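ARCHIVE CARD
Drawer: 12
Card no.: 0347
Subject: one protein chain, sequence and derived structure
Cross-reference: see card 0346
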Amino acid sequence: MAEHRQNIAKLQQLKEAMLTMLDGLREGDWFNILRFSHAVLRFRRAPVRVNPEVIQKAKQFVTEMEADGSTDIHSALMEGIDQLGVGEALNIIFFLSDGIPNVGVTDSKQIRDNVLAAQPRNFSIHALGFGDNADMLFLKKLASENRGVATKIYTDIDAALQMKQFYDSIDAPLLTDVSVKYPETEVLSASLTRSRFPTYQNGSELMIAGKLSQSASGKLEAVVAGTSADGPVSFHLVGETEDNNTVKAHYIERIWAYQSVQDTLKKKDVTEDKEEWNQLQQLALNMSIKKIDISTM
């Protein structure tokens, strides 16, 4: 009985989250909804353009959803990928799940491999896990491998509010598939923290830290590349480095150490290799000990 009540609560949360997403769609957007359990049920056969009548019918489709305990994650993702690129700029999958795959292909690694093999370039998969039964490790790996982000929706917090916060954080990016490159003569490439990002939002910032090479000229150049709504773009940026500022140098070094630890922990979370997992765990620990004061940042 308790489990049944929990399932009802999770389903209600999922519905609230989907209704919030539907309210966030704008005129001119294209979308579809795929409901999956033992099979995949489409809202429409193909993606449709947003208008008030379609949104109202989509909300009815969501509110009529029922859970049956089956979770065919693989078929849902493959069907969703098949619909990518249909319509104008339909390029994001929001994958919502409250369980683990138990129908069809159930091996999570095989599912991820099939997604990578099937997914077109420059599309993102964002994953949301509902409740304690959601396989967050799988969802994190799925999102990380497909230029997306994963988040957990907690059962004891307003799902609509959590969904709105998540949706606002990734909604309408100015750029997707962003990369930042520096001349190897100026920056030690092995020292760089994360320099590729799935999106860049208006008003947000991307932080990269690294070490200047001994031959650095005093001017720091960077090429920022990504994809905008109008296609590929790139920007050439030039700045000046500062000498003999020990206070600022110490602060930047702490940022670099903190970012390096965080990047290493993220790599650890998505690796399949146990030996590599142990190496990354030890590396993160060593960096934390070396720069122990970063914990106060």
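Annotation on reverse: The longest helix spans residues 246-270. Confidence is low (pLDDT under 50) at residues 292-297.
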